[in-house]
Amino acid sequence: MPGPFAVELVDPPVTYRLRRDALRPAQSVEEMAAFDTGGSDAAVFGAIDLSTGEVMGTASVSRELAPAAVGGTVASSASAAHWRLRAMATRKEHRGQGVGARVLGACVRHVAGQGGGLLWCNARVA
To answer: Which of 3, 48, 114, 116 has a CA 20 to 30 Å removed from the CA of 82?
Structure first.
């Protein structure tokens, strides 16, 4: 089980190593900055181990129109309420212990607090 940890808004660079290791191992940590898109309303959350400062899990959300397959259209009047979840990762040794669930919960609460009505993602199972 993980030790005490907190889920909080973090600066994207603190998540680069985890995101690279879990999602894009062929890229350098520096190249991870290219994936920090989403405008000024983007939010990056990290699950931080309170004893070590290690980033155990992360995810980001930003406003982005959903594809038509999940309810988005170019003319959608609700497009401002669409948010995309991306770059979600949990360190291998912390998977299956609720870390990702708590990060996802923080993302959902953030989106709801910003008036979001649809949270969508593309996903793969590691």
So the answer is: 48
CA 86 centroid distance within chain: 5
The answer to whether the beta carbons of residues 42 and 62 sit under 8 Å apart is yes
Using 50, 70 and 90 to split pLDDT, how confident is the model at 51?
Answer: very high
Q: How many other C-beta atoms can be found within 10 angstroms of the C-beta atom of residue 69?
A: 7
User: Cα–Cα distance between 76 and 65 in angstroms, integer?
Assistant: 8
pTM (2 d.p.)? 0.86
Task: Please say whether the structural domain 5-120 has been given the CATH code 3.40.630.30.
Answer: yes
Alpha carbons 82 and 38: distance in angstroms, whole number: 12
Lookup: tokens for 74: 């170019």
Could you tell me the residue ranges of all domains in the chain? 5-120
CA nearest neighbour of 95 among 11, 16, 21: 21
**Spatial separation of the C-alpha atoms in residues 24 and 108, rounded to whole Å:** 24
